[in-house]
Amino acid sequence: LNRQDILDALTAPDARPLFRSAVQARRDALGDVVQVRAILELSSHCRSNCLYCGLRRDNTKLERYRLPPEDALETARRASAAGFGTVILQSGEDVREALGHIGHLVKAIRDSTPMSVTLSVGEWPREALATWRMLGADRYLLKFETSHDDIYRRLRPGRRLEDRLGYLRDLRALGYQVGSGNLVGLPGQTLGDVADDLLLMQDLDLDTWVIGPFRPHPDTPLADVRSLPVDRVKDARTQVLSLDLLDVVLRCVSISRLLSPRAHIPGTTALGALAPEGRLRALKVGANVLMQDVTPAAFRARYDIYPGRLVGDGDAWERFGAAARVAEEAGMTVQECPRAVEPRGTP
Ligand code: SAH
Ligand code: SF4
């Protein structure tokens, strides 16, 4: 698919043929199997100030937390006992966590469970990335967020797209499996920009493609995104903000599947926040991964990246069961993973 093919797929009056061929492509490449991954949110402290994110440094309304390391390990072990095959350790860019605890936690999880460990903790020096890899981290998730230079610069103060892409190259060179992706529905973003994002994901030859809808957060400068001046309207009809965001994201999922049939493509939690059936629909158009938040309930609600997160309650067992039901509803089966021995004190 070239850029024009992608634009055609994004704008075709009837998306059903696209959805059907994506499901067929997934079936041929991977079968109708869903991987369920646990997300554990280590810290809501962040030195960065991304305009879109509720954890941004300047959000003084947020009550911040750091998950005590023993709780993080215990939760990861429960997730493994519940059936999760991967834990994603996610965090704001918290200097104390990054330079202190992350490496120990990665090693402790690898030593006591059969899970793979994915890190999603932002931009750190190559030495830190290398150390974590050496201690057992398998994958790294670092979204480039947007392939459009101006939008990137505007939304991530002090950061540069070319540096982000440099980190992705470093991660690959260090032997990580790399996940990345974009936000869809950013102010000023057009369908052409989204097509460029998908082409960049193809270029990066990613293990995991993450396409997430942007959800405006009330305590950020993008709270009322529709009232912002659109300063680069070439063609109002191609402004993503003026379109049905769920539809655009689902089309992106299908196009991603066609561009990379064997890739891991999640129905993101943000898609679940956008529409109650968002993740189910993603599976029905070509996705093959679900991510479930297993952060202990006392902290989960405070990891307030965007509103309407599927915080829910319940522990890892219930979270795994909930994901399995979504998979079943999509007519798919959940991938069997070796389980860790149940930690002491669990029912
Ligand atoms: N600090 C790390 C990881 C945590 S943020 C990092 O930035 O890479 C994880 C992801 O949350 C980001 O990549 C971003 O795509 C997403 N995110 C942040 N704010 C969001 C919002 N308002 N709506 C949807 N997704 C958002
Ligand atoms: Fe920090 Fe990540 Fe949020 Fe940016 S997106 S403010 S780096 S947590």
Core attributes:
single chain, 347 residues, alpha/beta, 14 helices, 9 strands, 41% helix, 13% strand, binds S-adenosyl-L-homocysteine, binds iron/sulfur cluster
Descriptive overview:
There is one protein chain. With 347 residues, the protein is of the alpha/beta class. The protein has helices at 3-11, 16-30, 69-82, 95-99, 102-112, 126-134, 149-155, 161-173, 191-204, 245-259, 269-274, 278-283, 297-300, 316-329, and strands at residues 33-41, 86-90, 116-120, 139-141, 177-184, 208-213, 266-267, 289-293, 333-334. Strands 1, 2, 3, 4, 5, 6, 7, 8 and 9 form a nine-stranded parallel β-sheet that branches. β3 (116-120), α6 and β4 form a beta-alpha-beta unit. α2 (16-30) crosses α10 (245-259) and α3 (69-82) packs parallel to α5. The protein binds S-adenosyl-L-homocysteine and iron/sulfur cluster (SF4). S-adenosyl-L-homocysteine binds next to loops.
Reported for the largest beta sheet, the result is: 9 strands, parallel
Q: Uncertain segments of ≥5 residues (pLDDT<50)?
A: 229-233
Find the structural class using helix and strand composition. Answer: alpha/beta
Shape: globular
Nearest-angstrom radius of gyration?
19 Å
Q: Give the tally of β-strands.
A: 9
**Helix proportion of residues, in percent?**
40-55%
- Give the topology string: H per helix, E per strand: HHEHEHHEHEHHEHEHEHHEHHE
- Indicate the mean pLDDT: 93
What gap, in angstroms, lies between the N and C termini?
A: 51 Å
SS field, number of helical segments: 14
Q: What compounds sit in this structure?
A: S-adenosyl-L-homocysteine, iron/sulfur cluster
Strand content: 5-15%
